[in-house]
């Protein structure tokens, strides 16, 4: 439990470091080997979700990652354009650097108690909708 709490406390930093890494494939594999073991246990997943706000961290980091890939849409003239789109040419997307986070998110939401908590948390759902 202590190791998992510490891992979660550093989760945002780990993901931001992954974004900047020149060896994201190697680092991604190492991160996922750890997180899969931690987040596959429902009791442990529920514990860090409740006590360490893991879902909030995951959604916030995912939002941060995707915001770093946004560019102005070219569908309208420049003066009236307020829309942005995801630039699929960004290294974060091309190299699947986001995948460890998405994989962890899928893994943790596979637990019914965690998924229920996610769906019952109004502020978390608003954050997800902003994503």
UniProtKB/TrEMBL annotation:
Pathway: Protein modification; protein ubiquitination. It comes from Cirrhinus mrigala (Mrigala). Belongs to the E3 ubiquitin-protein ligase UBR1-like family. Ubiquitin ligase protein which is a component of the N-end rule pathway. Recognizes and binds to proteins bearing specific N-terminal residues that are destabilizing according to the N-end rule, leading to their ubiquitination and subsequent degradation. Its EC number is 2.3.2.27. GO terms for molecular function: ubiquitin protein ligase activity; zinc ion binding. It catalyses: S-ubiquitinyl-[E2 ubiquitin-conjugating enzyme]-L-cysteine + [acceptor protein]-L-lysine = [E2 ubiquitin-conjugating enzyme]-L-cysteine + N(6)-ubiquitinyl-[acceptor protein]-L-lysine. InterPro entries: UBR1-like. Keywords: Metal-binding, Transferase, Ubl conjugation pathway, Zinc, Zinc-finger. It comes from the Eukaryota. GO terms for biological process: protein ubiquitination; ubiquitin-dependent protein catabolic process via the N-end rule pathway. This is E3 ubiquitin-protein ligase.
